[in-house]
Amino acid sequence: MKILAGVYEQVVKRNPGEPEFHQAVKEVLESLEPVAERHPEYVKAGIFDRIVEPERQIIFRVPWVDDAGTVHVNRGFRVQFNSAIGPYKGGLRFHPSVNLGIIKFLGFEQIFKNSLTTLPMGGGKGGSDFDPKGKSDMEIMRFCQSFMAELSRHVGPDTDVPAGDIGVGAREIGYMFGMYKKLRNEFTGVLTGKGIPYGGSLVRTQATGYGLCYFVEEALKAKGLSFEGKTVVISGSGNVAIYAAEKAQQLGARVVALNDSNGYIYDENGINLDTVKLIKEIQRGRISDYIKHHPHAKYTGGSRGIWTIPCDIALPCATQNELNGEDAEILIKNGCIAVGEGANMPSTPDAIDLFLKNNVIFAPGKAANAGGVATSGLEMSQNSQRLSWSFEEVDEKLKGIMKSIYKNSSEAAAEYGEPDNLVLGANIAGFKKVASAMYAQGVV
Ligand code: NDP
Ligand code: 2IT
After folding, report:
1. Is-catalytic flag, 432?
2. Are domains 55-187 and 207-368 of this chain identical in fold?
3. How is domain 207-368 classified at the CATH fold level?
């Protein structure tokens, strides 16, 4: 970095103790250096300085009462990062590891991801350090209501439209939607990922995982390859992982492993997804329960070991920095040909370098997992029109969007001289639209 080195230095200085945010910004600024060279007018207009500073950061107290009558206090966040091309849009994460730096890294990535979808959505992210694990349904409901009691002041269908992320699925969205509607006396599309009976979109549940496979399929196709007959390892066993596995299977691959934060399962016959859905979506159990249903499968404790399983395609779909340089070396040694990020920033920078240097097809999260938010955008369109589209119609639109994200990212990569570098391509393609919108709107 030359032109943009000062921007990065300022980010580190101004945001101490936020390593994930620094990591996300550094990767993007490194990709944008050649853009800054070609566009001195963007440098002069302070586009780079402004894009790394959230427009607004909201931090609030979330008090709630557990089933035993004990009062708990969690911290709530909403970072409204950039609204140049549309209302703030991005998920809510409930996980004990959540802090401002995590939400800022996610919100920053969301700006470029949402731009890539071709839909008019700005970037934002939120959440809480609340741990949903082991909580009763009523505790979850009271927490969500308390969270929305404050959040409702800051969001709205034309202002900021949250959705799910880790620890937030249809149940939590339902409780938050109910509270928003009661407080505002408005039935609006303030959240996406809603249940189908009250304004949700078909395919939103499947969208991130399906979209990931559609994207990887395009990248494979460009090299004359496909999912057919490939062995796939997927980390996580939540929303993204389950539907990535489902689509990979539909495309003819054999998915042999999944994990959660306690350990991984290996099933050489191919994972039975009905069992995983039962354990994870209905019983809210642990992935280790899989071997009770399928005794021939193997369970191994520890969350990292999953990358030691030989595979052709690896899809990290759990969390940030879950795949490091050491894991990348093992995957490459085992002959892995493609890595598609379903999670946000799951690969560390040294892992990404290794994949790129070793000609592993590498599909970065902000392009490859954009199918979730893209379908959220389609949910917003349906809500505005007070219509709902069929499963096939939404799925076709999702497929079309993932194809255009691949096309735009690979064309930008080629334009800037590194045709196989989709990290570079996605960052540049996502930036272009936001930058020209910010430029046109003046210094605001
Ligand atoms: P879920 O809560 O449904 O599932 C998360 C999964 O990841 C669980 O299996 C969980 O295991 C595992 N996991 C979470 N944290 C850790 C950790 N620290 N170490 C190991 N495993 C962990 O979330 P999603 O599937 O929705 O999200 C997964 C990833 O995909 C996240 O990075 C999210 O930001 C990203 N994403 C999600 C989208 C969506 O539409 N939902 C869209 C785009 C990206 P455990 O149960 O043990 O915690
Ligand atoms: O990281 C993401 O893109 C999401 N969690 C989905 C956001 C959304 O608004 O659907």
Report:
1. no
2. yes
3. Rossmann fold (3.40.50)
Q: Residue 376: CB within 6 Å of ligand 2?
A: yes
Q: What is the mean pLDDT of residues 359-381?
A: 98
Q: Whose alpha carbon is nearest atom 29 of ligand 1?
A: 343
What does the domain layout of the chain look like in residue ranges? 1-53, 55-187, 207-368
Residue nearest to atom 28 of ligand 1 (CA): 318
d(C-alpha 361, C-alpha 358), whole Å = 9
User: Taking 90 as the threshold, does the pLDDT of residue 303 lie above it?
Assistant: no
Q: Residue 304 — pLDDT band, cuts 50, 70, 90?
A: confident
112 CA distance to ligand 2 middle (Å): 12
Residue 302 is predicted with a pLDDT of 85
Q: Is 165 in the pocket of ligand 2 (CB under 6 A)?
A: yes
- Report the predicted TM-score, pTM, of the whole model to 2 decimal places: 0.98
Instruction: Give me ligand 2 centre to Cα 92, in Å.
Output: 8
Given a cut of 80, whether residue 418 has pLDDT beyond it is yes
Mutate to test the pocket of ligand 2, among 114, 115, 376 (most ligand atoms within 8 A of CB): 376
Atom of ligand 1 at shortest range from CA of 342: 30
Assigned architecture for domain 55-187? 3-Layer(aba) Sandwich (3.40)
Mean pLDDT of the chain: 98
